[in-house]
Amino acid sequence: MKTVLPYALILSSVCLYLTSLTSVAFSCSTEGFIGYQVLMYGWLGFIYLDPRWLANLWYIWMLLGLLHVPKVTVSGWVPYLTLGFAVASIPFPSAGCASAGGAAVFSNHLAIGGYLWVVATSIASLNFIWKENLDSKALSIRSRGTP
């Protein structure tokens, strides 16, 4: 059970993430943006000083780390920051909607794809944190000489 659970969590996280890419991620007054559109244009959030798009890059990096891809090391702060950025997407709107005059305005709220993205990145982050805690406990037990 211990070896199957992390991979089941990875699989569910990836399925939710892929589903979020094909669903409406957030809504504006008259339109919605599908997840893949947000992923493609989300890096523009840096213009508005909104770094939440980085959670996508860290999500992929964490998945590679969880799958034990060689030469992939994930710093201890990455899952916490990813989790924080994902959860911050719920109460804080995103820039990207255009008003009637063409000026950028904030979204009204997350849609189903946005919530799926939050859950997918949260599962991966918590899975990584859980795995790191298990690994550090196993290391401390081994260092004390307990089998």
Give the proportion of residues in helices.
55-70%
Strand content: 5-15%
Distance between the termini: 20 Å
What does the average pLDDT come to? 81
Multimeric state of these chains? single chain
Overall outline = elongated
Give the strand line-up of the largest sheet.
Answer: 2-1-5
* Total number of beta strands: 5
Topology overview:
Layout: H1 4-21, E1 24-27, E2 32-34, H2 35-41, H3 54-66, H4 78-88, E3 95-98, E4 104-106, E5 109-110, H5 112-143
Antiparallel strand pairs: 1-2, 1-5, 3-4
Offer a quick outline of the entry.
Helix content is 55%, strand content 11%. The protein is mostly helical and 147 residues long.
Provide a descriptive summary of the structure in words:
- This protein has 147 residues and is mainly alpha-helical.
- The chain has one domain (4-143).
- Helix content is 55%, strand content 11%.
- The protein is built from 5 helices and 5 strands, in the order H-E-E-H-H-H-E-E-E-H.
- It has helices spanning 4-21, 35-41, 54-66, 78-88, 112-143, and strands at residues 24-27, 32-34, 95-98, 104-106, 109-110.
- A 3-stranded antiparallel beta sheet has the order 2-1-5.
- Strand 1 (24-27) and strand 2 form a beta hairpin.
- Helix 1 (4-21) runs antiparallel to helix 5, helix 3 crosses helix 4 (78-88) and helix 3 (54-66) packs across helix 5.
- It starts with a helix and ends with a helix.
- The mean pLDDT is 81.
